[in-house]
Amino acid sequence: MTAPQVESGVVRTRFCPSPTGMVHVGLMRTALFNWAHARHTGGQMVFRIEDTDASRDSEESYRHLLDSLHWLGIDWDEGPEVGGPHGPYRQSERHDIYRDVAARLLESGHAYASFSTNEEVDARRLAAGQDPKLGYDNADRYLTDAQKAAFRDEGRSPVLRLRMPDEDLAWTDLVRGEVRFAAGSVPDFVLVRGNGVPLYPFVNPVDDALMGITDVLRGEDLLPSTPRQLALYRALTDIGVASGTPRFGHLPYVMGDGNKKLSKRDPQANFDVYPERGFLPEGLTNYLALLGWSIAEDRDVFSVAELIEAFDVTRVSANPARFDLKKAEAINATHLRALPVEEFIVRVIPYLAKAGLVSDPPTPEQLALLTAIAPLAQERMIVLSDAVGLLGFLFTADVEIEPAAAEKQLGAGAGEVLDAATAVLQALPEWTTAAIETALKEALVDGLGRKPRQAFGPVRVAVSGRTVSPPLYESIELLGRERTLARLAAARGAATG
RNA sequence: GCCCCCAUCGUCUAGCGGUCCAGGACGCCGCCCUUUCAAGGCGGUAGCACGGGUUCGAACCCCGUUGGGGGCACCA
Known about the structure:
By secondary structure, this protein is mainly alpha-helical. It is built from 20 helices and 11 strands.
């Protein structure tokens, strides 16, 4: 294995998740920033799967990751599905590479066999009057061949540790500026387990080196492990596996409620809820990009193209960002309203179909109805699935009145209103929005002397089952006389006044 | 315990020594529009953690304090 030939000066980022469990929004934010950085600079992004932990990794989770990336619109230049010259792109298929690199590190003296058990290390620390929390004491660096042989004869199989350099380890972080760790503050760390299985802190930089990664944008949680990686890179460069050390940028945490990292238990942490609720990919991308970055002083709504055009890692904020669902929704609603209505219809159909309201594809009648109501619905929705509640009444024979809506609008005085509405609509010669509006206003506002909000509330609930609906007269026209009258009658029966 | 990161309205942020009695957005409140709810328009609420420096001048630079977060595995 030797350092790869890659075009010099071209930025190469990477996204390298472990396929374990759910897809976390923080992870997707990391993917997005790597992608935006690559696209902005005209570089490339590599997608690699870190499936070294067979007990936790699953094929299902891997597929899920792929789906999530596709949904968000993130693509990659090398990796699963697209291949590339630096594969394989799954760590589970790269064991030979790690074995080879480990052997060369050992041979070149950058790494050494270490036999100490944790208990022995602790005992030595204690004996020296030190805190065992200091960790490994680098003692095995100085083992003689005879000592090593003795340990092997005991049946011990050593781990492989990297010899840390005796000097400060510092780098200029893309988002934080210079970060420095004092010499001696990081002990020699384990590259390969006693059983021969390589560890993440080893394989990750090896893969990055072999894949020609130039810019590593990752979570802030990995910042303390950077000195070790720096040291590893030096060693890898020395033996010809790496052609230098990449730039690092540590992205701020995405926080949940309270002062904690958005945890797996936070419902908002699960990326799946966004596609399911009908966030738009462009809406969620916009919001995710705002978690630590901003496009301009007076603007926070932008397209994916504008993100790519303007994205600059060095302007990413170093402080943690709290995930604010309300703001995410507001941003999404703006994108939703900006959609051309035909596009809005196309996107909303799967949600209506999933709820059983329309077939997929919709029948011509359903499509006509949807086309008529879409412009009126679009501006009062936040996410696409809102259409189910907002428009459901138009696509069903009967409507189920929400208890809260009945409580609010079908109490005292509602009977009178429903009777009057029924009478006037029954006799209405022409079933048009304008005629319905005139008739209802005359009957309820003028005739009964009701305030508009008291007059139309019960009618709306009767017709749509909810206190929130598309504009009333249009809704009634689209519903048709028969269903409208049936619903008024049903509501009349339920009304307490 | 040790190491590291962070610190501007409730929240996300702009600000990179004077143009800031700190700008935008979400939220919240009020008004307008209005057949509900929204949307839209207008207005309002609210912040530079604290203490020392440096400087003619500090939200911006330095030091300290406090507060918050993270890391110290033969997990990733």
